[in-house]
Amino acid sequence: DRICTRAHVVTFLWRANGCPEPENMSVRFKDVTDTSKYYYKAVLWAAEQEITTGYDDGTFRPDAECTRGHVVTFLWRANGEQAPTSTNHPFTDLNPTAYYYTAVLWARENGITDGRTPTTFCPNDACTRGHVVTFLYRSMA
Predict the structure, then answer these.
(1) What is the pLDDT at residue 141?
(2) What beta strand segments (E) does 8-116 contain?
(3) Measuring CA to CA, how many Å separate 108 from each of 3, 6, 119, 122, 139?
(4) Which residue of 18, 22, 59, 71 has the smallest Cβ count within 10 Å?
(5) 3-state secondary structure of 65
(6) Which class for 118: exposed (0-12), middle (13-18), buried (19 or more C-beta within 10 A)?
């Protein structure tokens, strides 16, 4: 039930993909510079793969809580940003202009999530370790 940080989620995803070495060791994010951090290579790899783009201020924010919207967006990007076949969904809390909108539709369509309730996804809620590994497991099935 512990909340995951952005560094945790990207590291889980990197490890699930076999811990590939980043092609370029240059740092894109001004807050990811300590090469001894467990997430250093994972963040570099995720940025190269365009799984994460970070924030407009040039940061990744590794210690920030990772939201449900972040997690499904990372997974969607890692799976090639596949377009959902339908925009029909039960979620009343999704804004069609939000960065995570298509990712949530894709995740629902692919059985990765049914939402927090039958009518809500709760994209801004922090994501627990249990939710993250469940989403990751389902996305790889």
Answers:
(1) 84
(2) none
(3) 22, 21, 12, 13, 11
(4) 18
(5) strand
(6) exposed
